[in-house]
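Chapter summary example.
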Amino acid sequence: MLDWFKQFGGKPDHPLRDAQAAQEVLAGLPEEPSLETLEQISHWIASVKDTPGFACDDRLAVMRLLDQAAAVHADPLFEQFFSKIHQQDRATRNIWEALCECWGRLAEGYAQCVADFEHGEKGAKNVEAEMPLALARALRAASLRFKLRYLRYVGVETKAWAPLYRLYAFAELKQFDTIPVVAYAREAHTTVRAESQKILLLYLAAPHEFPPVQLELAFRILARFAISAEWSRVPQAECNFVLNLAAGGPPMHMPAKESAGANKRFVGAGQALTKLTELRVLCEKNMLSEEQRFGKEYSPAQIITVIKQLQRYLSVAPPYRRFARTKAAAAVSVVHGLKPISQRVTKIELGSGVSLSEDMDLKAKTANIMKLVAEEIESTPETWAQKDQSEWGLGTDIPPDLGKWAEPGKLCGVQLRGVKEWWVGIVRRIDAGAGLHCGIRIFSKRPVAVWLRVLGASEHQADNWASSTGSFAFDYMRAIMLPDALKSHDHPVMILENKSYVPGQLCEVMMGEHSRHIKLVEFLEEGEDYVRAAFEWQDPGKA
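The structure predicted for these 543 residues follows.
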């Protein structure tokens, strides 16, 4: 070993002993992205981290080269994984595991470089100016691993927080935490604090309630605006979350009488919420440029939906469970999709002699019922195991090989055992930690399925939103009215076919001679297979 150290001038026994050696080895890697190459790079990252004898500047230089090489393979592999995220095949899981391992090891590798500097290892003086970058990259890699775990609804291990807090505490001690750096080429400036805040805010925004596409969008939005969040050593009104750098564990809602402490830090969305509101207004006015959309694939409706959840959970008064849960071991039937649900809930058929009042009570006019052309009932209900229930929620376990469609935001119909009526709700959260547990939010226990005939927009053109969400070509469309749902700004709420919301759109509720007109007045949220919107009844004389 001593002879080897002398031969290479005291360098470690490693094929990537310095930047020059690393460049020579990495130059021989295949250029075509592959899982095998990423796994090889991931192995090298771990070995460079763990091998003793590296000078601080050498280890950091090699780690940066490995980071660059990994990105060539990790970025396209993530896109491949994300495009097949709903598939449960082994190949997709292998990509997920390899990415988790690579980004986890990269975070640890940069953390080791920081530790070398902290302990004054050989070459430490040469890299002091690079420490803010090393810290930011360590946190960035950790955030990517966190996102991957959220995408599969397995959550983040409690032990994963302590290493991140140690990095931030050191950055704060050396006053590296607010130094602007460009973490990677073609990015805006960031800081160690901003990278920390992005991780914290994503966790606090209830990522288990986002479907994958919305989670990726939330990650991109926070990457842009987390730098505007509030951070303090003492309790402040705008900092409604607290974390303990010494104790580890995730951030928590700040108790009413929380005191300051040497290791406590207080965080809140602060000005980031203001910027999110400004972005939301631009989306609602369809004034968002393509560069502001976080990717061409995101529509204004998707951005608004994600912003609303970020605002809801990061506000100074985030949501909390309002209704107590009780255990309820029973079977529950579940279907998903607007059409199968509409076929099962209470329906108003053309010429049925049934009408809706403004408070959406059903009123029968005659016993002679004429039905529309009979439809073949779609979808066979799945039977899930109900575990608990609140007034407006269900907790269920999804049996193996069932619920492959389930993800947050999916519209579903549920029928409790022994109950004739079907309810309408959405999958609100998924927990895949121990089995597959699903939380369902109930929108309505008295839903009413109707057909709407599109009449045209009263104040807006139908193409202002349709330009980004697809052609608005609905002459007739399905809808489900929610009579007992919480109103929005005193307006009743309904569920429409996906991508069918147009501001100010006038529609006729098809009920034969007693038809009524409505106007769509507020977009609430867009799921993968539905839009939830508020409407108002129109005076027959004005419609």
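To summarize the output: Residues 4 and 13 are 7 Å apart (CA to CA).
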